[in-house]
Design goal:
Length: 163
Amino acid sequence: MLFPIILALSTLLCALVAGFLFAFVIVVMPGIKQLKDVEFLRVFQLIDGVIQKKQFFFMLVWIGSILSLLIATVLGYNTLDSLGQSLIFVALILYIVGVQFPTMLINVPLNNHIQSLDIEDLTDVANKVARRNFEPRWVFWNRIRSVFAIIVTAILLFLLALM
């Protein structure tokens, strides 16, 4: 009886992560794209600064999504049929490879670099270069993360519907 609860929790948490990433794709980054370089960098520093303070609820959702999906996958092997087992395993792999790895290997290091800049002391050219080195790559990989998070959520919703 624990598996359906963990699967529902994992679905909810992965959906929240997908929504968070998707909001950056369709609202946040297009919105701040309109800003001048120094303004763009400063606003991104502020937004990311909120996240980097390791807000309790953000961390609960982000880390909880990983742990709950891992637990659901393990529990699913005793509960699900072979199709379900395959689907939940695929969801776990897609979530790790498509959401978590790009986050750790690309987006967070880019965020950290932007956080390290003293943009007020940079020249206009330096701000332009910093933005050009950051924005296209960050946006591209956030789109990738969003797509994978949405696919994982869809798989988990499908598994919930099968129960």
